[in-house]
Specification:
The structure holds 2 protein chains of 2 kinds. Chain A is an alpha/beta fold. In chain A, about 25% of the residues lie in helices and about 20% in strands. Chain A has 31 helices and 37 strands. A 7-stranded mixed sheet of chain A has the order 5-4-16-15-14-6-7, sandwiched between helices. Chain A is globular. Helices cover about 70% and strands about 0% of the residues of chain B. Chain B has helices at about 1-20, 30, 45-55, 60-85, 100-125, 130-155, 180-215, 220-230, 235-270, 280-310, 315-345, 350-360, 365-375, 385-390, 390-410, 415, 435-455, 460-465, 470-475, 480-485. In chain B, helix 5 (about 100-125) crosses helix 10. Chain B starts with a helix and ends in a 5-residue tail after the last helix. Classes of the chains: A alpha/beta, B mainly alpha. At the A-B interface, strand 28, helix 26, helix 27 and strand 32 of A face helix 7 and helix 12 of B.
Chain lengths: ~1050, ~500
């Protein structure tokens, strides 16, 4: 059956003489395909033998005609002769005209054949349906999303027929409890990023993995003799036990080799501060569920860091005043947050008291606080005075002392190490250690000071001691302080083999001989520890899209176990530790190893270190001059590793709502001193920002300025991660590279800078142009005391028309009646909901220019308003605004083609196919939540992005309106599941993407008709109000008025 | 029509004369009022003069003027090509300002059209004889303005190839349009208006087309005019039926003058946006439309009168009367502005108050001040008769009004949308180069059609003008004999 057949040419003899063909497929693939006819014995063999098998003619078992059976000479001739007897062979007799005819015919036929060419890949239909895979029903797999600092967030990855499309939090995982942050949400786009590095290269030329392994093995064999004296590994911070074990194995094989770690935005200060305070490495985490009073010292506790998602959850639970109140009362309790910081952070938007100080002043404040609390060794700094801080300090100290054991003082990663020492000392003094502040064994495989590590490596490179350098997904050429001279050191002659393993062919890859394209975390096995040390297992959901290799495979080569797969490494480590295959399977299923949190450890705080820290901080505050530069990881690009993620680039940054840029944040007063305006022009959502030249230590950058209320005077905040020169199309050249101004001493905060306006203007695209409420009752807020007196304060702010003031009867919602409630007291404005909405609903990225024109597509936005004086606001109010799904929806009546209608369950639905795009609905929406496809914003052409899309949500075409659907596809899925099981939909079963992602559980969704549902209970609360209810739109999304808990001793209003 | 008309006119004239004789009735307007037709004309001379515009050679100035208009029309087509190729994004519209030049231009053009209908239908029914010399031209302007306006609802949609879904027609989707939407009312209002206007215009032209058929010397012209004249043979029966049809259409068109712009105003009044949601809108829009329409009629007529030497037919009396109409409607419009401001204050609604404050001091304040200058202050010049009868004076005022009425729609549409309820969503709007391309392009289309019209059609109603010559007044009583006399 599988013979090669030479088909006799047509009678006139001019045919394409040699039609090679698989007997079944006839695919014309030239012998590359594997014919896999069902049940055929020929499954394994390939065709295209070019007649090699034509000799098997002796009495075939299967035959086509009698001639073949007899093996007649005529048949043999017909088979063997390329041209039958009558055919005129092509040759000298062909004239030009005939030749052209034949060529033309061949080309035409070639084209015709190409049309029906089958894909050259093996197609294996399911003989037996694999377990669990039902076409159209997504599966969720537990895995670990790596976060900055090498930590893991336990997540569930949704897979549609083998394509991971969405990341959700793992409800069982202690770091997540079902929520996520923006980076985890956006990571799924990172997987499909078409700009990811796709090949292994050597000096820019494409090479195979085998060639790489050969090259590396050869180098390693020369290293072996010297014990690896010339071998260095540079990685990011590592918490992964299996990676650490592999590195340990490599170091055992090459005892002279060294392993360095570099993180441009890691926990350096915490590590150094912890060592100074405790004399050893310890991990610190907080139990905010128990905390009554929290003080953050330049610390974005809820906004960044490996524990932020969990901290947000715990902290917000302590602020749901109505749920903590006994039935029928308003006597609920609330925790209290004091924030002292130099630049506004999501955390401080929930602060009950906030003071903006320069970084050095924060140190002085901490020292003064420690002294006020009576911390042994602490002394108040002399000569430092700040009226606002002085007013807060005694009250704060009293509050902390009143909450011994139930308070938390947290110092941020960007604060000085000495500040961490003081925070530890204060916590120890207040008896918080072991209660709200949990000390444990270190979580990182080797806690390190990345600056010292990198400095040592550079020194060795320059000294010619490094011969082979393996860089594991870290990018010091871009993100290290320039004074270290990483790029120049990498070009050291001695370093003859430099290998870069990473997701992108980035700046550092350019300085390496070899670049190995890495796997995304969704493509490979692995593990990492969560903020509390819980081992989180990572499993692949998809074959590496671009054939990438995991770090485990690269390290396996170094271990001389080349060919070992990532799974073998991870399973090899954990299966024996866990006790066997079933336990391993359970851990992979759960996504983490239960009970693997870092064991508790304790240590006293060294009083000498406290005294030294207080002194240092006091001196720093006294001796500062000039402007302070505060470097901060970017809320979207982080340290630059997410620069090529368009979802993150287009997320409006908290406070400025700027997208696709990293402006310098300047306080209003400093802006006046620098003689610049804020660049607002007649209500444009974007700004024509003044360009500042920021100069320090002889280096300068030019960057647009954003005048930010709440910023500390004299501090310029610069965000890392921009100005990338080598990344994908998305991130290249976006924003300004501020790493140039970083130094070892001024790693996070650098004093003595000057700035001047260049006179140029730069267009910044922002999604919000106006940050004051114009005395409108939009975000309704009160203090806890006011709420207790007037629980109705939010509802009474405006008079909503009575529901019976109409001739028409209400629609009877006999089945479900969906609704949403949003707790404004909990929202930090972290954007996780926005990112989740983008990922779930295939929302287009439109780019900076279109955002500048006011055409962003986000269905959900977080409005931010400043309360009180705009220049010195008393609070920043966050308000997530999805579609209100109004009962009397103004959009519905004006649509001329009934493309937007009310569903029988109360949703305001958009039928894209019916929309002709008059935009009337968008005009008439008082909440302005409708988004119009002014262009073909959806990417319909990039292949890899097609895989990313949620198949249950339409990809919108040009010219149609779109908006929040309450994730109607999830409602449908829940309905199908409930109907299949013949049961009602349970409360909480339907969670829109925003509600699911929200780390503070600020969004609840459910059936208002279901009396037991949370959303119904929330809507019954006196705090509940509808936005613009006076328009009689009867919004279905309602808000819980914001309640703050300021210290009565300070007598402040909300 | 002419019969009873004439009797009535004669009766009025006689009455006035008798009053004058008695000395008890003195109205300067009556004796000083210029005639609607310059003295010395006969039926023949009227026909000669008007038909010569069409039948004699093309004047030299026509080519550059037409060429310019045609070029502008090409700008329209280029801009529309770009629009269809790339999408609505080439315009300046955004969130929150979903409508910009597209709807401004739509309302502006629709408003301009109103003058034609008012002049031909309402003034016909009110027996205002002075309308005769301008009605044909004004009707043509209506058609062309509606053509310009009618494009915008189609092309402003995101998916114009599906715009036919706004029409109620049986379809496999089982879908009707959504009848609660004012855009659907627009579809009916505008399409009815366009149809009736077109019919009215054409029916009114039939006798004159027959005149041109009979007078033209070229074979092709004879054939084409002959087809257009639909076999008009000047019989009494023809005249009778023409009369009936004209009256019927006039009767149909009259409510349309009020309804179309009322319904267009519903596009805004039904919305809940401050600056839109106002009950004053229907009358205020209708008055504005007439205001704009008269301004545009004069804007076009005055240069043409000069170019073709039609001073005998379009006299100072016309300028005077039209100036008065503009002054009256302009005052209604000014009242509308006043009431908007009053409502904003008196309602004590903070959104309305802010809307008014924003008009006065917001980003579009200069647009608003310019609007007040153009629409409220400039037309006050029309109180003076010397301005009303001065072609330059009137034309200048008309240009102010043209600009002012466009600005009015700008203030109503983008300036209301850009700052509504939630300050977080406030934005700004500026027309892009393509917005301007389409706007200027529609002016090109309008002028091109207008030039073609004046060159190939009788721009003044010949047969109606003939009813105004003195001999028709004094001698004849049979309409057919006077009005329809055909060259042998």
């Amino acid at each position: 059956m599988k013979e090669d057949v030479k088909i006799p040419a047509a009678a006139d003899g001019e045919a394409m003489a040699r039609a090679t063909g698989c007997a079944e497929g006839g695919c014309g693939c030239g012998g590359e395909c594997t014919c896999e006819a069902a049940g055929s014995t020929a499954t394994e063999s390939t065709c295209g033998c070019g007649g090699a098998c034509a000799g098997e003619t002796a009495a075939p078992a299967l035959w086509r005609n009698l001639d073949e059976l007899q093996g007649s000479a005529a048949f043999q001739e017909a088979v063997e002769n390329e041209f039958p007897r009558q055919a005129v062979p092509l040759g000298l007799g062909v004239d030009r005209r005939r030749f052209l005819q034949l060529m033309g015919g061949s080309l035409a036929l070639g084209g015709a054949v190409a049309c029906t060419k089958q894909p050259p890949e093996s197609i294996v239909p399911y003989v037996k349906q694999p377990e669990e895979i039902v076409p159209g029903v997504p599966l969720a797999f537990a895995t670990a999303a790596p976060m900055a600092g090498g930590y893991a967030l336990g997540v569930l990855a949704t897979s549609h027929m083998g394509r991971p499309t969405k990341i959700e939090g793992n409800p069982e995982h202690p770091a997540s409890l079902g929520s996520t942050d923006v980076f985890a949400q956006a990571s799924v786009l990172g997987l499909y990023d078409p700009d990811r590095s796709k090949t292994i290269t050597n000096a820019g030329r494409i090479r195979t993995w085998e060639a790489f392994v050969d090259a590396l093995t050869m180098e390693l064999s020369t290293q072996e003799s010297s014990g690896g004296a010339g071998l260095r590994i540079l990685s990011g911070a590592v918490t992964s036990p299996s990676l650490a074990a592999q590195i340990a194995a490599v170091l055992a094989r090459f005892p002279q080799a060294r392993w360095y770690q570099w993180e441009p935005a890691g926990e350096r200060s915490a590590v150094l501060g912890g060592r100074a305070a405790f004399g050893r490495d310890l991990s610190v985490r907080y139990d905010l569920a128990k905390a009554q009073v929290v003080l953050t010292l330049d610390c974005d506790l809820l906004g960044k860091g490996p524990g932020a998602v969990r901290y947000s959850r715990d902290f917000a639970r302590g602020r749901r005043v109505w749920e903590s109140a006994p039935e029928g009362t308003t006597a609920g309790t609330m925790n209290r947050l004091y924030a002292v910081e130099c630049t506004p952070s999501p955390t401080s938007t929930l602060a009950d008291h906030r003071v903006a100080l320069k970084p050095a002043e924060i140190g002085a404040f901490a020292a003064a606080l420690a002294a006020a609390l009576g911390v042994p060794g602490a002394a108040a700094p002399a000569g430092w005075n700040h009226p606002e801080a002085a007013r807060l300090l005694p009250v704060l100290a009293q509050d902390l002392l009143a909450h011994r054991g139930s308070s938390v003082v947290a110092a941020g990663d960007e604060a000085a190490p000495e500040l961490h020492v003081l925070a530890h000392a204060i916590n120890a003094h207040l008896g918080n250690h072991g209660s709200t502040v949990l000390l444990g064994e270190p979580i990182a495989a080797r806690p390190a000071n990345p600056l010292a590590d990198l400095e040592a490596l550079v020194g060795e490179l320059n000294a010619g001691k490094v011969e082979a350098l393996i860089v594991l997904d870290t990018n010091p050429v871009y993100d290290a302080p320039p004074e270290l001279g990483v790029a120049k050191a990498l070009l050291s002659q001695a370093a003859r083999l430099r290998v870069h393993w990473g997701l992108y062919d980035d700046e550092t890859a350019r300085y390496c001989h070899w670049h190995v394209n890495a796997t995304h975390y969704l493509e490979t096995w692995g593990d990492a520890r969560a903020y509390d040390g819980t081992v989180t297992l990572q499993q692949p959901l998809i074959e590496p899209l671009y054939g990438g290799r995991s770090a485990h495979e690269v390290l396996a080569v170094l271990e001389n176990r080349s060919g070992t797969s990532a799974r073998e490494v991870v399973q090899g480590l954990w299966q024996p530790r866990l006790g066997g295959e079933p336990q391993w399977r359970k851990a992979v299923h759960d996504g983490f190893v239960a009970g693997s949190a870092a064991p508790a450890a304790g240590a006293g705080v060294n009083a000498g270190a406290v005294a030294a820290a207080a002194r240092t901080l006091g001196e720093a505050a006294a001796s500062q001059q000039g402007l302070t530069l505060a470097f901060r990881p970017d809320p979207s690009a982080w340290d630059g590793r997410f620069a090529n993620n368009a979802w993150l680039q287009e997320l409006p940054r908290p406070f400025s709502k700027v997208v696709w840029d990293n402006p310098v944040y300047v306080s209003p007063r400093t802006a006046r001193e620098l003689n610049i305006d804020d660049g607002t022009a007649d209500g444009m959502p974007g700004r024509r920002a003044a360009v500042l030249q920021v100069e320090v230590g002889g280096e300068s950058i030019e960057a647009p300025a954003w005048v930010l209320p709440g910023q500390a005077d004299g501090v310029l905040t610069l965000h890392l991660g921009y100005g990338r020169t080598r990344t994908g199309k998305v991130g290249k050249g976006v924003g300004v590279d501020v790493n140039k101004l970083r130094t070892r001493a001024g790693f996070w905060n650098r004093v003595g800078a000057t700035a001047r306006a260049t006179g140029d203007r730069y267009e910044l695209a922002s999604t919000q142009g106006h940050f004051v409420m114009e005395s409108r009752p939009i975000v309704r807020h009160a203090t806890l005391a006011e709420y207790r007196q007037h629980p109705d304060f939010a509802r009474e702010a405006v008079e909503a028309p009575a529901h019976d003031m109409t001739l028409y009867p209400d629609w009877p919602y006999n089945g479900h009646k969906w609704g949403m409630a949003i707790n404004l007291s909990a929202c930090t404005g972290c954007n996780a909901c926005v990112a989740a909405c983008v990922a779930e609903n295939n929302i287009s990225v439109v780019g900076k220019d279109q955002v500048f024109r006011g055409r962003e597509m986000h269905w959900l936005r977080i409005d931010q308003y400043y309360a009180g004086d705009y220049e010195a606001p008393s609070a920043v109010l966050n308000q997530p605004v999805p579609c209100m799904h109004c009962e009397n929806a103004p959009c519905e009546v004006v649509c001329p083609v009934a493309a937007t209608t009310h569903s029988f369950e109360g949703l305001n639905e958009m039928t894209y196919n019916r929309c002709v795009g008059t935009r009337y609905c968008g005009n008439n929406c008082p909440y302005k939540v409708r988004r119009f496809n002014f262009y073909k914003f959806s990417d319909w052409t990039t292949e890899s992005l097609k895989l990313q899309r949620n198949p249950n949500v339409s990809v919108r075409a040009r010219g149609v309106m779109e908006k929040c659907t309450y994730c109607v596809q999830r409602i449908s899925a829940a309905r199908i599941a409930s109907e299949r099981d013949d049961r009602p939909i349970k409360d909480g079963e339907v969670k829109p993407a925003c509600a699911q992602a929200c780390p503070t559980e600020a969004i609840v969704f459910g059936d208002i008709n279901d009396g037991g549902s949370r959303v119904a209970a929330w809507k019954k609360e006196p705090l509940s109000y509808g936005l613009l209810e006076d328009l009689n739109t009867r919004p279905r999304t309602t808000y819980m008025g914001r309640v703050a808990n300021p210290n009565p001793a300070l007598g402040e209003k909300a | 029509m002419a019969g009873r008309d004439l009797e009535a006119r004669t009766a009025v004239a006689e009455h006035e004369e008798s009053l004058l004789e008695k000395g008890g009735y003195h109205r300067p307007g009556i004796i000083e009022r210029a005639p609607v037709l310059a003295p010395g004309h006969t039926a023949g001379s009227v026909t000669d003069k008007i038909s010569s515009v069409v039948l004699s050679g093309t004047p030299r100035w026509f080519y550059p003027a037409f060429g310019l208009s045609f070029t502008l029309m090409m700008v329209l087509f280029a801009s529309m090509g770009k629009l269809f190729w790339e999408g609505t994004g080439i315009w300046g519209v955004n969130q929150p300002v979903g409508w910009g030049f597209d709807i401004i231009n739509f309302v502006w053009w629709i408003g301009i059209g109103h003058a034609g209908t008012l002049i031909s239908a309402i003034l016909l029914l009110l027996r205002q004889e002075w309308r005769t010399s301008i009605n044909r031209f004004a009707e043509a302007m209506t058609i062309f303005a509606v053509a310009c306006a009618g494009m915008f609802p189609l092309i402003h949609t995101g998916r114009p190839w599906l715009a036919y879904w706004l029409l109620p027609y049986p379809n496999t989707m089982g879908m009707w349009p959504q009848f609660r939407s004012p855009l659907i009312w627009d579809v009916f209002a505008v399409s009815t208006y366009a149809t009736v206007s077109l019919l009215f215009w054409f029916v009114g032209m039939i006798p004159d087309l027959a005149t041109l058929r009979d007078r033209s010397t070229k074979r092709i012209a004879k054939v084409l005019y002959g087809m257009a004249a639909m076999g008009w043979r000047n019989s009494a029966k023809h005249w009778h039926e023409h009369e009936v049809a004209s009256l019927l259409l006039a009767g149909l068109a009259t409510p349309l003058v009020l309804s179309v712009h009322t319904i267009v105003s519903f596009d805004f009044a039904v919305g809940i946006i401050p600056g839109w949601h106002a009950t004053i809108f229907p009358p205020y829009f209708v008055a504005g439309a007439i205001y704009a329409g008269f301004a545009m009629v004069l804007t076009c007529t005055l240069p043409l009168r000069r170019a073709f030497g039609l001073h005998d037919f379009i006299t100072d009396r016309h300028l005077d009367n039209m100036g008065k109409v503009m002054l009256a409607t302009g005052l209604i419009v000014a009242y509308g502005y006043g009431i908007e401001a009053f409502t904003a204050w008196y309602s004590a609604n903070q959104y309305e108050t802010f809307m008014m404050w924003n008009r006065l001091f917001g980003p579009y304040r200069f647009h608003y001040y310019a609007l007040l200058l153009c629409n409220v202050i400039a037309p006050q010049a029309l109180w003076w008769r010397s301005v009303r009868v001065s072609p330059v004076g009137v034309w200048t005022v008309c240009m102010f009004i043209n600009v002012g009425m466009w600005l009015e729609r700008f203030i109503i549409i983008p300036a209301s949308l850009h700052r509504d309820f939630l300050p977080s969503s406030w934005g700004i709007y500026h027309g892009s180069i393509w917005d301007w391309g389409i706007f200027v392009g529609t002016i090109g289309l309008f002028l091109t059609l207008l030039f073609l019209f004046v060159r190939f059609m009788p721009m003044i109603s010949i047969f109606e003008m003939r009813t105004l010559v003195p001999e028709a007044r004094g001698v004849e009583s049979s309409p057919g004999a006077v009005a329809g006399s055909v060259e042998p």
